[in-house]
Amino acid sequence: MKALRGIALFGIPAPVLAAGSATSPLLGISAGKDSFSVPMQIVILLTLMTLLPAALMAITPFLRITIVLHFLRQALGTQSTPSNQVLIGLALFLTIVIVQPVAADIYHLGWEPLQDGRLSPQQAFDQGSKPLRTFLVRFARDKDIRLFLEIAHTPPPHSPADLNLSVLIPAYILSELKTGFQIGAVLFLPFLVIDLVVASVTLSIGMVQLPPIMISAPFKILLFVLVDGWNLVVGSLMKSFY
């Protein structure tokens, strides 16, 4: 629960957090003169909650894991097995394992002081975003960061810790997309070799009644099971984040 609260804190922009007072330490909802009205704050909060799942999928390892698992299923040629629900569930729980330390740091640095009244919403956002920024910097490529610095017309910061999240988050997404596609291409290679061998053999003996994909599918699944493929793929994915 602490981890989820820590992540949820950064689904709410700092100006919106700053609009609330300390009346409700959990939601930041109040009816003070310097804040939005309570109905307006509720509308803003519900709107942000609808965007939170998309944000969490984009700025967590969920992005890379789902891409790799999708490529793996395509390489095996098993159509819809495992189902999308199974793959998404597996990716979600693997993501929780990876981001739990980061979310705990966000909770302790940002959310707890905000609840206790020791920090203002803006200060809590700045303090709590440090673990997230450190995590994103580890996997964002310099080339992608430079690209978004140029797009935003922002001068290069003195250190990675000074990067703005508006630059760092899209750079991280691009980097994860490239990494996911690279891993997926490597996964495709051994199964592509099996498809080529089976297609060559079937054509050489004149067996054209069955498509080569139907014949190669059992061999690909057998190979994947014999090498304990799920353990290798998931283990390699998890280790790539440490």
Task: Describe what this molecule looks like in 3D.
With about 240 residues, the protein is mainly α. The chain contains 10 helices and no strands. The protein is elongated. The two termini are about 25 Å apart. The model is unreliable at about 1-5 and about 5-35 (pLDDT under 50).
Largest sheet: none
- Distance linking N and C termini: 23 Å
Radius of gyration: 23 Å
**What's the total number of strands?**
0
Helical segment count: 10
Shape: elongated
Poorly predicted spans: 1-5, 7-35
Helix content: over 70%
Q: What structural class do the secondary elements suggest?
A: mainly alpha
Mean pLDDT across all residues, rounded? 78
Order of helices and strands: HHHHHHHHHH
Strand content: under 5%
In short:
The chain is mainly alpha-helical. The chain has helices at residues 2-9, 14-19, 38-58, 62-76, 84-116, 121-139, 142-151, 165-204, 212-226, 229-239. α5 runs antiparallel to α6 and α6 packs parallel to α8 (165-204).
